[in-house]
Amino acid sequence: MYSELKEATMDSEFDKVFARLQMEWTYIGGLLVAIAVYVHSTSFPEGVANVTYISVDTAVFSISQGSLFNVNFYARRAIATSSIASGLGIACDAWFLLQYNWADLQTFIARARDVYGSYFFFSLSARVPGLCMFTSALSLMLFLELVAFDAWPEVFGLWRALHWGSSFMRGG
What we know:
Layout: H1 2-7, H2 11-36, E1 40-42, E2 51-53, H3 59-63, H4 73-100, H5 105-112, H6 120-125, H7 128-151, H8 153-170
Antiparallel strand pairs: 1-2
Helix pairs in contact: 2-4, 2-5, 2-7, 4-7, 7-8
């Protein structure tokens, strides 16, 4: 993105980057919220349909008393990392959307340029929500694997044996 902004001279070149960033921030914001929320059901008064909101929340495993799964120290750290990264990513994403989403192209160009006249720092900071989403998703995946391993370690031994067998068959 930095090279595209640095080499852009016409409004149409800036507009491509601007439109792509707006779409990226919108998608990443939605994904971060999906990672952060949980499954819950809301009942409404008679005559109003019951609505169930289904999203991803594995943090329920770590905070529920008498949970079906044992959540160890590392799993708690993984879900905390996921929550922190989600929160930070949502905050950064909201800031970018509020700062740039309703701005016109000339405002985008002026705000993206730093004190040195380049787009370097904007290019780095514009990727922070994506980095937070990656960190959140990765630590959430680690949490799930740690809980699953603690619940059924034999499956991971079987998976490792199958993986080793397929590597052996390929000659690796």
